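Q: My labmate handed me this sequence with no annotations at all. I'd like to see what the chain might look like in three dimensions before we decide whether it's worth expressing. Could you predict it?
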Amino acid sequence: MRKNSVKHERVNQAVQKELSNIIRNEIKDPRVGIMTSVTAVDVATDLKTCKVYISVLGDENAKEETMKALDKAEGFIRKSLASNLNMRNTPKLTFIADNSIEYGVKMSAMINEVMEKDAEKESKLGEEDE
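A: Here is what I predict for the chain of 130 residues:
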């Protein structure tokens, strides 16, 4: 299976969807944050390893605790993944913290702030012209 093939993309999507369901519904560890999401999955072409990108909304402590809990539950998650997906090999999972959602929220807030300042400046200029 080639890295960018349609089959590889389908495997990535299926694994991502299933991992999301497992993390949301089957893990009972209270350290896993409620706002935990699987943002991306990269399954190796030989199906032996899988990088799982996890985004956690919350403070740094919540992120660290969630990542520790997921690392500890890797065996359970892998077993659940094997029983829910029919794959030749069940990949070894590596969880990686992904801050892209948080970064996007911050950037959006900054853009909104700049837009508000520009609108204020334009309204002041309009008042001066009158």
